[in-house]
Amino acid sequence: MPAPLRRAAQAILAHPPVGLFTDIDGTIAALAPRPDLAHVDRRARDTLARLAGTLAAVVVLTGRPAAEAQRMVGVDGLIYIGNHGLERLEGGRLARPAASEMATDALAAISPRLEEALRDQPGILLEPKGPLLGIHYRNAPDPAAARARILAACAALAPGSLRVAEGKQVVELQPAVAFDKGLALRAIVAERGLRGMVVLGDDRTDLEAFAAAQALRETGGCRALLVGVAGPEPLAEIAAAADYLLPDVHEVVKFLAWLADSGER
Ligand SMILES: [Mg+2]
């Protein structure tokens, strides 16, 4: 692990209470051909469990539903922020805003029509996630054409109460209300009175968490270390926004293990 990253992390740990915010896919779990094939390996889970014992908050910030994130990570004592900030699961209690329920109904109504509109486009996978609908085109023979078709279908079928967002090889329909990983991060920093945080992510929605952390750092509210993950599909925006860029999930888990060792010393 690079010495400058170690020094930056030590400077954060020296001023508790400190929180860790991490994405799942592409950050602590390798990207998989289908979302259900991705998994968080044993070493990552054990490391997060150790961190939960030493840090003031360990928060999973993911686009997956919170309950699914909890199943994947399988560590008690974490805060699971699901659906990019629309759900919060902690200590067995799930909280979600009213807009989330409305979006769930709207998506249930239009999903069959979307499926019908995209029927002749091979390699597309719809992933219903309650108030969100992921439309994956990773396995399409012509991903650019598939993306264009998906965006056109969404524009034609989605009501104004939903908005379109994009991630790596996925288009997502979401409730058109204010929620994102950054708002979720800010809420937890305030609630826990954090003085420092380490934020990890690899994709566009993680930029919201990075931006929130950076804003808090600039106003002197909280120290922050932003760690991006390149992986097989690196994003230039992540590299630009991060203080440090790790090459892959394996290096992230090594970094987290080092963080846990440092906290236990
Ligand atoms: Mg990710």
At a glance:
With 265 residues, the protein is an alpha/beta fold. The chain contains 9 helices and 12 strands.
Write structural notes for this entry:
This protein has two domains: 3-96 and 179-264, Rossmann fold, CATH 3.40.50; 98-175, Trehalose-6-phosphate phosphatase related protein, domain 2 (Alpha-Beta Plaits). The protein is built from nine helices and twelve strands. It has helices spanning 3-13, 42-54, 66-73, 98-117, 143-157, 181-192, 204-218, 236-241, 249-264, and strands at 18-22, 57-61, 79-82, 87-90, 93-95, 125-129, 132-136, 162-167, 170-175, 196-201, 223-229, 244-246. 44% of the residues lie in helices and 22% in strands. The structure holds magnesium ion. The site of magnesium ion has 6 residues, from loops.
